[in-house]
Amino acid sequence: MKVRRQKTEREPTIALINIVFLMLIFFLVAGTLARPLDKDLTLVRTAELDTTAPADALVIHADGRMTWRGAPQDSAASFMTQLPAEARARLRVIPDRDLNAADLVRIGRALRGAGAEKIVIVTEKALE
Question: Where would you find the membrane-spanning parts of this chain (predicted)?
Fold first, then answer.
């Protein structure tokens, strides 16, 4: 008569280790998809630059006032009538940081309705 061996139940730790290993490989590959910058490259520092707004950009203040080249603008429609046709293809808008988002969307829709083909919002990008 043969003696039956009792089967020991295996713990699923091997499967867990495999999953963690596959996740590690995935994140290593996903993290290296973008080409790294050259090691000897030094980026330009703009912290000390005295910058000004682009001259042909529509500035929208926190209270909703609009100015273009320093002159106040009554409405989006009257502003668009002043622009030449080539300037309407790509209109730059500089909103104040404290401008309500709903007001920015409302003004953007009014500009589109008045003939602006593409509206580019100029923002500040902080790298540090």
Answer: 12-34
pLDDT of 128 reads 44
Distance of CA 123 to the CA centre of its chain: 9
Return the H-helix or E-strand segment holding 101. helix 101-113
Contacts of 2 (CB under 8 A, 6+ apart): none
The pLDDT of residue 52 is 55
Which residues does the chain have with pLDDT short of 50?
126-128
- Record the tokens describing residue 21, joined without a space: 């290993």
Contact 93, 58 (CB under 8 A): yes
Determine, yes or no, domain membership for 127: no
| Full domain range(s) for residue 112 | 58-121
The answer to whether residue 88 sits within a structural domain is yes
Question: pLDDT at position 24, please?
Answer: 93
- How many domains does the chain contain in total? 1
Please check whether residue 74 lies inside any domain of the structure: yes
